Request: fold
Amino acid sequence: MKNLSLFILTVLIFTCFSAQAFSQIPAPKQSTPIALTGATIHTMAGATHYNGTILFEDGIITAIGTDVTLPDGTEIKDVSGKYIYPGFIDAWSQIGIFEISAVNMTLDLNETGPINPNVMVERAFNPGSRHIGVARSAGITTVVTTPGSGFGAGLIPGQSAAMMLEGWAWDEMTLKSGVGLMVNWPNPGNQRNYNNQLEQLRQAFDDARAYKRARTAMEEGNAPHHDFDSRWNAMIPVFEKEMPIVVSANDVRQIQDAVTFAQEQDVRVIILGGRDAHLVADFLRDENVPVLISTVQSSPGRWWEPYNAWYELPAKLHEAGVRFAIAGSSSAANANRLPFEAGTAAAFGLPVDVAVKSLTVYPAQILGLDDRIGTLEAGKDASFLITDGNPIEYKTRVEQVYIQGRKSDMNDMHRQFYNMYYEKVQQRRAE
Amino acid sequence: MKNRISQSNRITSFLGMLIAFVLFCFPAGIQAQSQTSPTDGMKENTPRVHAFTNATIVTSPGNTINNGVLVIRNGVIEAVGRNTRVPADARVWDMEGKVIYPGFIDAYSSVGMQNPQTEIETGNNSWNPQLRAHLRAETEFEVEDDGSSELRAAGFTTAVSVPPLGVFRGKSAVVNLGDGSVTDRLVKAGAAQAVGLRRSNELGFSYPTSAIGAIAMIRQTLYDGIWHRDAHAAFDRNPAGLQRPEHNAVLASLSGVVSGRQPLLFEANSEEEVLRAIRIKEEFGFNTWVRGSGYEYRVADYLRNKNFGLVIPINFPDKPDVKTPEDALNQSMANLRHWYLAPENPARLDAKGITFSISADGLDNKSHFLRNLRYAVHVGLNPNTALAALTVNPAALLGIDATHGSIARGKAANFVIFNGDLFEQNSRVVDVWVDGDRYVVNRQRHSDPAGTWALASQNGLFDGTLEIKEQRGRFSGKLEIGEEEIDLKSTSYTDESRRFRADFMLEADDFSGLVRLTGSLSADRLTGWAELTGYGRIEWSANRTGYTEEEEQRERSLPERTLELADIRPAMEYGRESIPEQPRHILVQNATIWTMGSDGVLENADLLIREGKVAEVGTNLSVPRNAVVIDASGKHVTPGLVDAHLHSGVDGVNEVGNAITAEVRMADVLNVNNIWMYRQLAGGLTTAHVMHGSANPIGGQNVIIKMRWGALSHDLILENSPRTVKFALGENPKRVGTGRYPDTRMGVEQIIADRFRMAKDYERRWQEWERNRTGIPPRRDIRLDALVDILNGNIDVHSHSYRQDEILMLMKLAEEIGFEVKAFHHAVEAFKVAPELAERGIGAIVWSDWGGFKIEAYDNTNYNARLLKEAGVVTSLHSDNSQIASRMNWEAAKMVRVGMDPEDALSLVTSRTAELLGIDDRVGSLEPGKDADFVIWSGDPLSTFTVAEQTWIDGRRYFLIEEDKVLREKVEAERAKLIRFIMEEHND
Reply:
């Protein structure tokens, strides 16, 4: 057996994992300073440190570089020959609110009715989802879980939240709530329906703005009492430009119309999807509208479009100077494919380092998470991965993930199944 | 005077005027009478002898008599010729300026079939509502609003009434399009047995729910028809001791078909369906007619020698919507170019020497028929061919050419009179004569007020010159009194009553106010009276002083055909003008070659191809003379990738109408209009197992194809590849639902077991019959035939599965019953029963990383393939998804991430896949003698950063990344050209 050595090696690796055979236990919070040394550290903040050291304490990076002074009591781990990258951010995910698509009771995607700006996804986030561990062992440390998609999705389905894939429950796993207000742009296929839904959307924003004005006047003592409206109250941060609207838009009409709408409403807008974004790339660049591309490893709907039209989309937006990130387009169960989406973009023209940025620093900047994650710099969260190569390359293995300094259990459900049934194979061989 | 009449399109001669009132006698008089019906009231004996003089008579395509005479007597043509004598008893019709053509014959119509019965509740019918072969168009025919008058208005005098519903629909009948009774109108009963290639929704949702099911049903029913005949023959010879065979009206009515006397008439709604009909014809050898769909030009080269009857519609597609740039973005090149080329369908078929008839079928508005016919001629159809397709061709096809199809002595008096050449834009059908009876289509005007008139009124109150004008059927006029010109208002004229009306304001010394004129026209004189409003009434009259020259109607200009569109296949984006050539020798040099055979991966190696096969793999191979040499330095070469489970490129995937559908075949419904095939080629895929869906414990037969982009559907099939069948366990077959057995996994097992027991009994019956050949022959059951083939190892079982329990169940059941399972597909929990699979040598075909989408898929692990491989199971990956199939190398690459050796990983989409499909003698590795199916990659095929640069099949290059760029530009250019053409075309 020519691959015997590899076989034995991997069996050994997994034998170690199988020590803790059952469920994935959340890692304890970091208690002592840790320094990882000898790695090639891709900070995504400009510098790459060869044979570098990353030092972190209480979940925060305190120093990074080739000349790092380690405080007393630092736990030092030699990771020579390995690579360290910032943890990946899945800028659009359903992890935590989606378990099994054909089992409706395991889904918490769409609240009743078209207008639900007040629902907050983190409050329903299931930390026991199997998909968390699988995504995490692919290097995804943060997911922006977003409500409202598929059948029954409303126009304004709720607010997304940035969730760290480590911890006991949503309270400690929430990196940031209210990351974006999701808007599902109507389908322009049917003109009348399109216009009606646009009017409905505009009405909601106008009503919410009127509510804000009235409540402000009330609070400043210039008006009588105005009763609380949960829906419109939730939209106040949007008008104050603290929270962007994240508009699902693929068709070129949807993209243009959504940006026009946002400008008219004077709110920040992020395009999600962006299939046709390359047709209006200059416009998006000039208006500084970022795009969360969710259609890379996929094929165009129009027959005439090139077979690799979507593979090439990130490269086209990059060349045009549009801000973008690559988001997962798969269901929660397949969130682990995110690095491959970026890899495909790299195969079709996107520079490799930009492809990695489109999973790290770019989504952090676009979604306002860059004060904490996206790059490896002192003061930022110690959320990163250790690999044996470029993490968007298929053959690369993600060996360890740290999230805010917590060393995550890499023995996800997939590996547990492997270990358990490898045992069956062994037993049968022994019989 | 003469000159004026010949210029007019609407005004007949004075002779016409004289006989005008004869017209209205006919239609009511002949309603519903037949030759055997008793006479009520007065016997009608209006003479039925007519002579048409001064006519241009096109007796048949290409044969014209100028200034001839046509004589008909009692519904039959008595004489036609240049010097034919007008019989003394004939009514004479002056055909000056008119052209007479043989009446058109529509070889496929729904005339009389406007309300087909959907529930047949009486009689010894078939078990299935889609089997209605015993219906006869002439007995189902409904006369009221039967559609005859619409067809007559387009020049038709005869049509085939085709029963419209079902798979076997019933026998069509040729009828003339008069208003008489069906008995009198029927020309020929039982012209053909009509067949649909799909289920009719109107007859309910039951087997066959799909195109595959419908085609299987056609096969089974034809066999049943043969059996019914033979079984009754055997019983009739000696009934003693025999169980009486069933008397089935449907099967009995197929006796004409199975004996070769009566054609099968297929309704085909795409060019693929035409090919399907032809393939059934070739399988059974029965006489076959096909009503096409307007797409036949796409396969004209193939159809030319197929010896079948072809009827084509000319219901050209609507103009594609390109109103906004976004609408234009969403138009496919396939749709745009079909819109442009569809009118050329008849001309292109003619150019290939294919004989056809043209039908008005499919036109919602039959009044567009002539417009479309002329457009077909405008775009290249020879007018004589067009006329033949409406007359002699359908007559010959239908076997009625002794009486129909041309104007000749002794034939039925069926003809159509145009007011000019049929193919001129503005010419119109004047009258249609059916069986010697006249039907007015465009009533001719017999009087004309337009012109100048000298008006004289009582007391000379408004004497002057009256001028009446007509424009597009609307009248206007003015009155000149001395110097004064007064416009007439509310001017009108009615030909039937010869009444003229107009009002005007008069400012005269004696009277000021509204004058209301009314008058009657006779020859060149108007006589009438006028109301002087509020004053009194006076009389007036006018004599014609001149005619107003009618304006020539402007010829509607048809758009110039400026576009040159190459013939491509498939007729869509990225289609090819021909199959790529196969160089005798190809040498790929200096590559890293993944042989996937015993040679492993060879660095800096060469691959020699000879005549489509791998000749040699090695280093420093010598270059044969004239070889195509490809320098692949730095590149990797692998065998063409194989996908073990795909559903693209077929019209429908599931036959859900029965739990067991082993008789249906995916090969029947391949469709090359499949953009995925091109995209899959671009990702290095060369072979795929195109499978039936998972709705049935025992589903249909799959087909193994190569991605021969540009070939016809049946040429995609990998020659002599093993037959395989789809089984399905678990949720899918049980959730098809409402009442269909099974509803549980327990039932899934039992119905599989039960059917195999049936199949064994069936096989025994046949074996007995083969030994004795006495009594009634067994009925051939193609469903059980397939199960017998499974039992005998002639069809490989590929089973959809998820959970370990069901995988174990089928393995055990197969052992108990005695058949083999080749592989479990999806098999998300196969890793749980890896030892059991390995022990039995049963393969596993799984996803790299798909699961969690339903409860039975929740225990998925991306280590599935790895663990299976390690346990000794022959393992492959599959896509089950058209997009994933376009990047199977990356699916394999994912297995490297979970710890597999790269070569093992690639084997999951090449050699192991071929092994499990039983095609490893042909594909899956690069070893001498194997098919020259290979991919040249930009680098390591398992790297994220690698793309396929060339994809070769059978030593032919089907994909080249540089060529793709050229094709993109061609596609863009052709779309742009077509969109511009649509926008510039101002007609309609």
Summary: DSSP finds 13 helices and 16 strands in chain A.
